Amino acid sequence: MVKRRSIRKESEAVAIEVRVPTVLRKHTGGENKISGVGTSLRELLDDLDARNPGLRGALISEDGQLHRFINVYVNDEDVRFLGGVETELQEGDQVSILPAVAGG
Amino acid sequence: MLARDISQAVGNTPLVGLPNLSPPGYELYLKLEGHNPTGSVKDRVARYLIEAAEREGLLGPGSQVLEPTSGNTGIALAAICAPRGYKLTCVMPENTSAERRDLLALYGVDLVFSPANEGSNGAVRVAQEMADGDPCVYMPFQYGNPANPQAHYDTTGPEIIRDLPDVAAVVAGLGTGGTLTGVGWRLKEHDPAVKIFAAEPEYGDLVYGLRNIDEGFVPPVLDTSVLDGRVKVDSLKALVATRDLAAREGIFAGVSTGAAVSVARRVCTPRRLPEGSKIVVISPDGGWKYLSTGAYAPGDVAEIAERIQNTLWA
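Output (structure tokens, whole complex):
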């Protein structure tokens, strides 16, 4: 588990840019990049869902964890190896959502 | 080295230092899987898949084998199947390089194409549909066959330990997950402190053209519990590192090798690996099969990366 720098006042809003894959753009009015605020991935998704209805539901399963076929990266690092949906975010972080695809 | 047939020439690949691309205080080593008989790491997997099926009595003279692949596994299976008289059909996404198609045709493989916008997941879907309707066909299914990680547990992992017993971390690309899983199991047995990092290719939009999220696919052979981190790498970063390998280390490698080297350089920080660490990067193949994509052509690297971002390189 990688510790991320965290020197920040509580509930301070930070703008985060999110890259959205084709399959989820039906929730974003066709936009491939959206932005929102939040000090954690969970807060960011809550904020985004208010303006992009259905987005959070497509990403988070009923158990509250990330959908099995979705990978979310913060600054290129898979959040499953950071703090999952509780991964902390800072202003300027880049969030990318990618569907799981295989190779071989 | 004398080999009875081509399947006996698989493995024992060189582990080569990268003195000029290693960050200060760290030592990177590249395991050149392109030195296998058909030029990729998949020779290890193909041999294990076919020999496991033979042991179980699933294959015999004249058998038909069917496999979804983005190319390398198909070529490796072709070389293992040809001398044994097995007829091979491969399902491959149409956005793979021309060299892969030509090589498979040379081996006499029947090719079925799956839609480009479904990536490798589409090849899996089409192959499963074909196999379901035909009981005469044997599908090894590298994505779900334990012989895939077993090949790396039995061969790749021990070779790394033999050549570099004090290895601190391994970085490899994520395709089926077989390399990372098998090598990860073996190295963590050898030393539980060894770190395993995955390099995940990030392509252009076309490759992620799924109709819904449930068309996503996580290969059953991937054991994510061996992973300590997973880092995505876009075509530009992969290509820059691939070209650096040629220019600064004299190594002509495929684009996914560049992706893995890029991740290896990134994890060389005291936060993740102590200074002095030795890191093994798996190079799955050489660059030969990607020449036609233009990845190595002269020109602006960012423009070239944009052109190749929808071509599968893992």
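The beta strands of chain A are 15-19, 33-37, 70-74, 77-78, 94-99.
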